[in-house]
Amino acid sequence: MKKNKIILVLLIVLLSLVVALQAQENAGLKLPAGFKATLFADTIGSARHIAITSNGVVFAKLMYPNKAGNSIVRLQDANQDGVADNIKGWAKYGGTGIYVRGNQLYATSDNDVYLYQLNEKDEVVNPQSPKTIVKGLLARNQHASKSITLDGQNNIYVNIGAYSNACQEKDRVKGSKGMFPCPILDSAGGIWKFDGNKENQVYANGERYATGLRNVVGLDWNKQSNSLFVLQHGRDQLNSFYPELYSNEESAELPAETMYEIHKGDDAGWPYVYYDPFQKKKILSPEYGGDGKKEGGENAIDPAVFFPAHMAPNALLFYTGNQFPAKYKNGAFIAFHGSWNRAPLPQEGYFVAFVPFKNGKPNGAWEIFANGFAGEGKVMNTRKAKARPCGLAQGPDGSLYVSDDSRGSIFKISYTK
Amino acid sequence: MNNKVLFLSFICVIIFSNTVSAQDLAKGKKIYETRCLVCHQADGGGVPNMNAPLDGASNVVGNNIARLVRIIRAGYSEKVPLDGMYYNNVMTPNPDLKDADIANVLSYIRTSWSNKASKITVAQVQAVKGKK
What we know:
The complex is a heterodimer. By secondary structure, chain A is mainly beta. Chain A has helices at residues 2-23, 238-241, 248-253, and strands spanning 35-41, 47-52, 58-62, 72-76, 86-90, 98-101, 104-108, 113-117, 131-134, 148-150, 155-160, 190-195, 207-211, 216-222, 227-232, 257-262, 266-267, 273-276, 281-284, 305-307, 313-318, 332-336, 351-355, 357-358, 361-362, 367-370, 389-394, 400-404, 410-415. Chain A has 2 domains: 1-30; 31-415, Neuraminidase (6 Propeller). Chain A is globular. Chain A is built from 3 helices and 29 strands. The longest helix of chain A has 22 residues, at 2-23. Chain B has 5 helices and no strands. The longest helix of chain B has 19 residues, at 22-40. The radius of gyration of chain B is 15 Å and the shape is globular. Chain B has one domain (2-128): Cytochrome c-like domain (Cytochrome Bc1 Complex, Chain D, domain 2, Orthogonal Bundle), CATH 1.10.760.10. Chain B is mainly α. The interface between A and B is medium-sized, with 28 and 28 residues.
């Protein structure tokens, strides 16, 4: 009798161990068949964007210095087991943007763009004395982070987010009207283009490349179309300020999160319009006399792709590797940070999506590629989400890396057949 | 301040606290749901790096009531560390809320989730003059 009991207990312990281990298979992620994931790094700090050198060294930009006091982290996987074994860091300034080009490493604070030099081992030569490429960009409370990407011709594109929700006279105050023209657009709410090498550039040295973008966190250069693509975070709180026009449910589903292909001089319409994913139209913002139906933005561009509301697309990566199956080649991966602005409805996002592309144009519906970052079940309250995808980068072997600024982890996703 | 005054004001607080009824708390909850929940979330946990948590926040359960009242009235975007963390969003001001509404919503957030602080009376809110 007693023996049986002991065996039973042992069996239960064993079973629960197996279950626990299986839950951690693929580092807890749900992936399409043939893909595997490892937890490349964990609790490194609030990892925003990431970049990888041709030798596979990963650099992560942190929103705040981590426990060791560093805001840029260098990670190396010397024994090639999918887990970083050599982790170091430097810098004190928080920020989001990071980009590797050859042996040059760009990183951003909320005001400036810096450039570091890497040696042949991809170690930073001048951690304490980077070149300042751009300085003095606006950073006011909201949407202050600066994301960057480069084209093939030595130009750097910097997002300068609008320090406002909808350009009201008083930001986020019920009943306050939208300003016309919106004065914020002179120095923010768009993408600015600078020389990738010239030092100490300020606004006057750059050019406003695109406007009418409330806040872009994810952006990437598409080498096939030879053009910039950006992801906009749509406006918040339609229901808080216009309960007579938008129900809780409508406010949770409006407006769409949008991807734009950008050409020089484009205007994406913020703050005057937002994109309605159901009517598939640019709708006049209520701060500018809209009623949820009136159209606007005649001169504004339409999105190339649109997604459900408030999911917060924080990174964009065009996949140019050869490791993944053919359908992924040149397509777009998008890291959705996950919503908070859908409450009281369940939150959405917290996954990496994929959009197929052909010849530099979207070619088919978007789908969820990697899910499970937030943990099991629906996320009702944002702090319950375990990990929130925030950055993407492609390794030299074609693996996809995903960073998370909540738990501070980096996932490495590979295709193994 | 001597101990007697302290003690008396303590008694006052307790007496006043008791004048905040269950009905007032229900009203506070309603205000929370329509105005605050979108940012601070149903569980009062806020949004990491974005909107400050109210559940377990030392300022929310603390004794600087005037600061709390001013935050509700005038909004908040000081970008100072709150329990060691910074928050990027801007809190909406509520110039149209009456003193009684402010007392109710503050009472609600001070006694909800894991928070177990004293309730706030209308008199305490009235005592806070000026916008800043």
